């Protein structure tokens, strides 16, 4: 069975709906879409839509400035009392938009210090920003890791932008892989709770994800969330256009079960939008579109 949790860890996750299965019945999260750019290309992503590392593909979120985002967070925190977590998860990669991401976190940390800050990233830039993440008290970081073998990675990632240059093929994937491994180490060393998301792609990385699970566990990740590839032709992704199928619920469960002996598995993920609001199963994002929340005043009590 997965290792027992100590009391301190239990307290850190007890109000986080993604990190605690129990919490997701009672506590809500919200996302603000402040991060439009991305520094890699995933074959299951169409950049017109939200980051598919964390989201259901085919969803378009309205990009906000940090100021608008902070206003939105304070409005919602005043209206939804179970709101405990603010996540930044797109629509691109938060750490490819460091200015917007950290300015948003800064504003929230100052005005609503009891809201937990959460971040989801592909990991390419995380080693650069881990100090900043720690300083801002971001206690939950998700890394999307789909492979630990660049040969498999080549079938998932066509390019990576790194130090102002665009890399292709195996060179690109090696950079991403090394940075993801450094990210796991950096989060462990800085005592930030790390969840790993992996997208299960039949025939590409499905048999390989057990190995990914071993590696992330040995590097101290707390939780593993294996999500199904969702690929519809109309989303215009490479995988969608090449007819790549996603796993069946049975295939997904078999893989999750096979990994469950090693570490805690997340099984209640709802593949949220980059502007999701509410409990995990409910989507209240349309109540808080920009034209609406800008008209509401923040009633959040410190
Ligand atoms: Fe958001 Fe992600 Fe933080 Fe949760 S979502 S940034 S860890 S607050 Fe949660 Fe949504 Fe699944 Fe993500 S259910 S897609 S795992
Ligand atoms: Fe798309 Fe996210 Fe991959 Fe960037 S990291 S290409 S936004 S799925």
Could you characterize what this model shows?
- By secondary structure, the chain is α/β, with parallel strands linked by helices.
- The chain is built from 10 helices and 11 strands.
- It has helices spanning 7-13, 66-79, 98-111, 126-135, 150-153, 169-189, 209-218, 238-241, 249-260, 290-293, and strands at 28-31, 40-41, 83-88, 116-121, 138-144, 159-162, 165-168, 193-200, 223-228, 264-265, 277-278.
- The strands form 2 sheets. The chain has an 8-stranded mixed beta sheet with strand order 10-9-8-5-4-3-1-11. A 3-stranded antiparallel beta sheet has the order 2-6-7, covered by helices on one side.
- Strand 3 (83-88), helix 3 (98-111) and strand 4 form a beta-alpha-beta unit.
- Helix 2 (66-79) packs parallel to helix 3 (98-111).
- The longest helix is centred in the middle third of the chain and has 21 residues, at 169-189.
- The protein is globular.
- The termini are far apart.
- 50% of the residues are buried.
- The model has no long low-confidence stretch (mean pLDDT 93).
- Bound molecules: FE(8)-S(7) cluster (CLF) and iron/sulfur cluster.
- The site of FE(8)-S(7) cluster has 17 residues, from strand 1, strand 3, strand 4 and strand 5.
- Residues 18, 29, 31, 54, 85, 87, 89, 118, 120, 140, 142, 225, 269-272, 280 line the site of FE(8)-S(7) cluster.
């Amino acid at each position: 069975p997965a290792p027992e949790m100590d009391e301190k860890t239990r307290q850190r996750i007890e109000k986080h709906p993604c990190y605690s299965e129990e919490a997701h019945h009672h506590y809500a999260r919200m996302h603000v879409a402040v991060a439009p750019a991305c520094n890699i290309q995933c074959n299951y992503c169409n950049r017109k839509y939200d980051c598919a590392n964390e989201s259901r593909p085919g969803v378009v979120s309205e990009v906000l400035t940090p100021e608008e985002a902070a206003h939105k967070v304070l409005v919602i925190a005043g209206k939804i009392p179970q709101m405990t977590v603010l996540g930044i998860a797109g629509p691109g990669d938060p750490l490819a938009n460091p200015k917007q991401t950290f300015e948003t976190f800064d504003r929230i940390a100052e005005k609503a210090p009891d809201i937990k800050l959460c971040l989801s990233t592909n990991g390419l830039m995380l080693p650069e920003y881990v100090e900043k993440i720690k300083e801002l008290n971001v206690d939950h970081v998700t890394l999307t890791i789909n492979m630990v073998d660049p040969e498999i990675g080549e079938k998932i990632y066509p390019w990576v932008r790194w130090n102002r240059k665009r890399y292709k093929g195996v060179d690109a994937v090696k950079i991403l892989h090394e940075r993801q491994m450094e990210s796991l180490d950096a989060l462990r060393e800085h005592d930030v709770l790390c969840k790993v998301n992996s997208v299960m792609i039949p025939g590409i990385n499905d048999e390989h994800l057990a190995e990914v699970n071993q590696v992330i566990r040995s590097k101290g990740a707390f939780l593993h969330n294996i999500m199904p590839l969702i690929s519809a032709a109309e989303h215009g992704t490479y995988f969608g256009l090449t007819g790549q199928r996603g796993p069946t619920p049975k295939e997904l469960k078999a893989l999750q079960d096979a990994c469950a002996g090693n570490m805690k598995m997340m099984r209640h993920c709802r593949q949220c939008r980059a502007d999701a609001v509410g409990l995990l199963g409910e989507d209240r994002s349309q109540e808080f579109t920009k034209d609406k929340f800008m008209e509401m005043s923040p009633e959040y009590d410190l």
